[in-house]
């Protein structure tokens, strides 16, 4: 039976998540999740240790199940994609054993994920555009500055959305409270008149 272990990684916007390594037991799945902004370049490099009778499948998906990268019997390789929207992206390694042995060594998985400024290959950019080292550093700082501005704009937008939501919720609570108070007053008034009429009919009061 395939078991699934999900490891939640911190949300890092400006720098990549860096290299990580973990052991993958046979007939199991481990998934790494991360929230990433829209229009961000994401690159990954992985390596899985080989074990006899075990194959490992790799799949990269977004929160709605779109497959961004998939490879069966993945041992070593790279992947890259650009995010379409701000959401949670997931990298899953699934180990499948064909030996059926109860004692099977775990596989060592090494994964290095980068996104944003860290994912760009500035060496290749420098060769393509014939940039000097100082110009490459300035380009990197420019990209980093744009990334910071983009993050602040996103946080400001989220703050405005949350503020609008809080204000809308407060108004709805006020309207509901006013309506509830009106219903209680109307019900209490009706009860007073009804009881007064009932007591008069029983000649308990004049």
Automatic annotation (TrEMBL):
Signal peptide: 1-19
Domain GOLD as annotated: residue spans: 29-115
Keywords assigned by UniProt, alphabetized: Endoplasmic reticulum, Membrane, Signal, Transmembrane, Transmembrane helix
Domain of life assignment: Eukaryota
Keyword Transmembrane helix: yes
Short name of any one Pfam family annotated for the protein: EMP24_GP25L
Segments crossing the lipid bilayer: 173-195
Subcellular location(s) of the protein: Endoplasmic reticulum membrane; Membrane
KW Ribosomal protein (keyword) present: no
Chief subcellular location: endoplasmic reticulum
Matching PROSITE patterns: GOLD
Membrane topology label: Single-pass type I membrane protein
PANTHER family: TRANSMEMBRANE EMP24 DOMAIN-CONTAINING PROTEIN
UniProt similarity note: Belongs to the EMP24/GP25L family.
Name of the protein described by the UniProt record: GOLD domain-containing protein
Species this chain originates from: Staurois parvus
